Amino acid sequence: MRLYALCDQDMLDSKGVSLNDFINIANTQKAEILQYRNKNADISVIKKNLITIRKQFDGFLIVNDAYELIEFCDGVHLGQEDLRAIDEDIRKAVKIVRSVIKDDKILGISTHNEEEVLIANDLDLNYIGLGAYRNTKTKENISVILGDSIEDIAEKSKHLVAAIGGVRIDDNFKNIAYHVIGSGLVE
After folding, report:
1. Which residues neighbour 55 within 8 Å (Cβ) at sequence distance 6 or greater?
2. pLDDT in tens, 106-131
3. Cα–Cα 20 to 30 A to 174, which of 4, 23, 150, 156?
4. Whole-prediction pTM
């Protein structure tokens, strides 16, 4: 199992966990990737937190959505809605983001079904997040839970696949490169 730690600021705040404590847990669990997600802060707070993480975490640092802060991390992750906010055509949105972050940075997107995975196969990406595997506390209103079908869908991806949504450390996948775990690290 390879760990991709999802550091969601709202989740940290709701559990009373500091950013430093989460980074320490991610380091202890040997996370290879840490994604910082903060949907409610302004860009200066996100930048400050990325700098804090970078000082304490040696793995790959990914920022959620704020691709304008790419110089402070190794890559960016965008959801389907965030891509559509850039351009209704996902292909154009990915090209726009890639032109900003350049080829030497990591780009990942969320996918939720086989159709989105097949579209992603034609995009200039480094990985996809696939899910939700099961219900999760960090996202409300999940319309589709993939459950065991996640393995079959993951097989269709030409990119590395990170299982997202309710994933636990003890889950066992054969076609998934990374387990994305957020709240499960601090429960």
Report:
1. none
2. 999 999 999 999 999 999 999 999 99
3. 23
4. 0.95
